[in-house]
Amino acid sequence: MIIEIKVPTPGESITQVLLSRWLVKEGDFVDKDAEIAEIDSDKATLSLSAEADGTIKLLASEGDTVDVGSVVCTIDTSSVKEIKKTVEKPKQETLELELKEVKPSVQDNSLDNVVHISPLARKVMEEKHITEKEVVEKFKSKRVSRNEILDLTNKETKTEPFSRDAEKKKMTPLRLKLAERLVSVKNETAMLTTFNEINMSKVMELKKKYNDKFKLKHGVSVGFMSFFTKAVTEALMLYPSVNSIIDGDELITFKYADVGIAVSAPKGLVVPVIRNAESMTIAEIELKIKELATKARDNKITLDEMTGGTFTITNGGVFGSMMSTPILNPPQSAILGMHNIIDRPIALNGQVVIQPMMYVALSYDHRVIDGRESVSFLVKVKELIENPYQMLLHGIDPVKTLLGI
């Protein structure tokens, strides 16, 4: 029976995709549900899976643009019976072949001991009446060429001092769409960036003190991203304009925080979304971040998991970035950029001390967010990270509440 494998629809309004990579070769035997190909759209990278056991026939090439619903390969299920027959051969015969002692009949040259004859090859030798001596003599007389020696030594004797090679390949739909969106943001928004610095010592002390217990209970280590996500959700409730978007001639302000976490995936930057992050604990946020980041890096993230989002956080610090101006993720009006933690001298209580400091940046659309609100929002995030206990009180400073200020 021949089964046709068709390109699934990656999402609404998408009619064509790019066949990025085959994970199998022509004539391979594939198992049901095994991943056989990767396809790229302008929104995500998806996997194509085998719908049955059988031998695969490829009908499209890597790099082809194919229509959604078109057949890109077929699976012949009739080969399953032949495979089963091979697998069901008497185990005793296989065992005898594996255990059969190899005793080379020629021992007058050191090369003879190097030639290893597999059980399958030995069986063919018996059928064709070929002796071990003939095999050894054949390989003894093999002439080794200069190129083979160079390959063996990784071409260490190559004389070319440098390369002038270049590689040209087609951009993926995801990369093309990303480029289009980034350019449109610069052209269509009034984007500004405000900066601040955060003393990370309190959070780092908290992590050091409780991380082992946290990991034992939840199965993951607590990370800085979960603290920042929680801090952002508290700050958004205090400064709702940062959690707004422009829709035509209307301004939509969200009463919830769907926080996108920018993740570097094999095919480009993707932004999976943590829904209702304002209602989650640090542990719940950490587990969700790990789940979504793993899916993104394995190209298993779905469109639903990347759709929407009211605010985005990106962390260039994992790559060593000290400071940057993150670009907005449309139609959102703000994005927070985290950076590398570096020990720097600062003035603290009248003394110059060395503290772990991080620069943070908030890029925002000035059409929606005024300077006062953007700066106040970032200052609140700074306060919450530097005093993590405030997150238990939804960003409210108990001392200020007590004094009524």
Give a brief outline of the structure:
With about 400 residues, this protein is an alpha+beta fold. It has helices spanning about 80-85, 90-100, 120-130, 130-140, 145-150, 175-190, 200-220, 225-240, 280-295, 370-385, 400-405; strands at about 1-5, 15-20, 30, 35-40, 45-50, 55-60, 65, 70-75, 190-200, 245, 250-255, 260, 265, 270, 275, 310-315, 335-340, 340-350, 350-365. Helices cover about 30% and strands about 25% of the residues.
Provide an overview of this structure:
This protein has 405 residues and is α+β, with helices and mostly antiparallel strands. It folds into three domains: 80 residues, Beta Barrel (OB fold (Dihydrolipoamide Acetyltransferase, E2P)); 55 residues, no CATH class; 231 residues, Chloramphenicol Acetyltransferase (2-Layer Sandwich), CATH 3.30.559.10. Helices cover 32% and strands 25% of the residues. Strands 9, 12, 15, 16, 17, 18 and 19 form a seven-stranded mixed sheet that branches. Strands 1-8-6-3 form a four-stranded antiparallel sheet, with no helix packed on it. A four-stranded antiparallel sheet has the order 5-4-2-7, with no helix packed on it. Helix 8 packs across helix 9 and helix 8 crosses helix 10.
